[in-house]
Design the sequence.
DNA sequence: CCGTTTATCGTCACTTTGACGAGTTCTGGT
DNA sequence: ACCAGAACTCGTCAAAGTGACGATAAACGG
């Protein structure tokens, strides 16, 4: 704010501040988002992102973490601010400015009980992103389609140059499991051998636990933990979607 | 928002929504930000980022553009959302959620007249980022030091893989001028020959205008315009700050 | 025992990078 | 007029990284 303006909020119509959360995980080899079916107008019976009002004494991130826990019981997952959406008219009732957060959790997520009247469920994001797929309600309430798309774009982009993919993996994971995260989120096939060379060759990116696992069939694989290096330089290049 | 909650904003203490702007440019071979000297409490006489309240019928981006024009007269520059800052207590008067924007303008910026009581001026960002430099007021009002740092970080990062650097250049520019943007923003020296090869070799990144210029001394250089390719793949790698 | 699956190691050609040499064309000083 | 300096642009070369793919290893289920 510049210095001379005085504060008189009553001069302005009130603005509500909410958080909305794009919570992504991987279910059955698909990237999926948690969606809530709305029980009230507007957009009754449509799907929407989970979220809620920011309470007077909590930070924005705390509000997002709280809503997430209320909705899913999950805690401590990766959570980052995505962007803020505040167009007038995005909510027909009043001016609402919504701070969107992106959250990622590993594979087998809690069964999301519809503890209250609203029901939450995981939906593959593809149906909301590909306008060519006429499945399910292809539109979300409010501007949540846009927010969901921005969240997926952010996640896809950050896989290239950060260790974000490990947020989709359990604490200990194999190179193959990590590669499958990339393949599912990007929707491409990666060469297992080159991927292995890249991630094991980047110093500090993966820490071997010394253990092996045979889960997943095939030859047992080393288990790794996330290492201290959280930036990938040079990045893992995402192959451009095969143009035919 | 999840579906069952009802809207009753009067239940909550009001939250003010503002925009703050990190406006960067290059002055005298330094990266500089526009700062306002505050004329009122709190933080009277401190420096702060320009900004102001979001009006009822404008988008967040429009509010940022309006404030920017009121403050500098500048229009049409690069403007992107940076992040939202809403910790309780960041403003001692009331709960304020501020959506920060990052704006970049080319070299010779308008003289910023202190048209109203507040005075605006360009300050090199180094003094606010390097805590080791005890020049000028090394702290900004509110959490604006943090916002400024985030803005500079964002600009630095995006130079690597986007054509953002051209936002610091006039419409037509030489490869040398573009390189100097990188050198100043990153605070490193780049090899002129390798840089030239990289940016002219990336198809669609620069469009030759066919003209030459001799401004800047030395052999005349080709003038380029920004090309259609706005993503640099592979990116221009930022040399790590020379470790001694 | 044998095919299948997955992990991991290697090889090879190609591209990109970083370091640097060298020629070109302007300006400003003497 | 000449020269030093600055800046642009083209080249060369070794090192590193990448993509494509062959080959072996170690588990599994029949």
Sequence:
């Amino acid at each position: 704010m510049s210095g001379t303006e005085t504060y008189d909020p009553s001069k302005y119509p009130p603005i509500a501040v909410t958080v909305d959360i794009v919570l992504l995980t991987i279910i059955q080899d698909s990237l999926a988002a948690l969606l809530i079916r709305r029980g009230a107008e507007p957009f009754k019976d449509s799907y929407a992102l989970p979220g809620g009002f920011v309470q007077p004494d909590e930070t924005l991130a705390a509000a997002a973490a709280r809503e997430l826990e209320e909705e899913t019981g999950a805690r401590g997952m990766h959570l980052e601010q995505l962007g803020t959406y505040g167009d007038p008219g995005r909510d027909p009732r009043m001016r609402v400015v919504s701070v969107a957060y992106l959250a990622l959790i590993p594979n087998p997520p809690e069964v999301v009980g519809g503890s209250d009247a609203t029901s939450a469920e995981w939906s593959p994001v593809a149906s909301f992103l590909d306008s060519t797929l006429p499945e399910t309600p292809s539109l979300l309430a409010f501007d949540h389609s846009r927010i969901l798309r921005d969240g997926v774009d952010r996640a896809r982009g950050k896989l290239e140059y950060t260790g974000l993919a490990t947020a989709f993996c359990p604490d200990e994971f194999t190179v193959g499991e990590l590669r499958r995260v990339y393949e599912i989120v990007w929707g491409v096939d990666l060469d297992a051998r080159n991927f292995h060379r890249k991630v094991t060759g980047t110093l500090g990116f993966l820490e071997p636990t010394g253990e092996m696992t045979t889960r997943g069939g095939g030859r047992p694989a080393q288990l790794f933990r996330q290492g201290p290096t959280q930036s990938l330089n040079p990045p893992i290049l995402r192959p451009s979607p095969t143009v035919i």
In short: Chain B touches chain A through 57 residues (CB under 8 Å). Chain B has five helices and nine strands. Helices of chain B lie at 60-72, 126-129, 144-161, 175-186, 192-201.
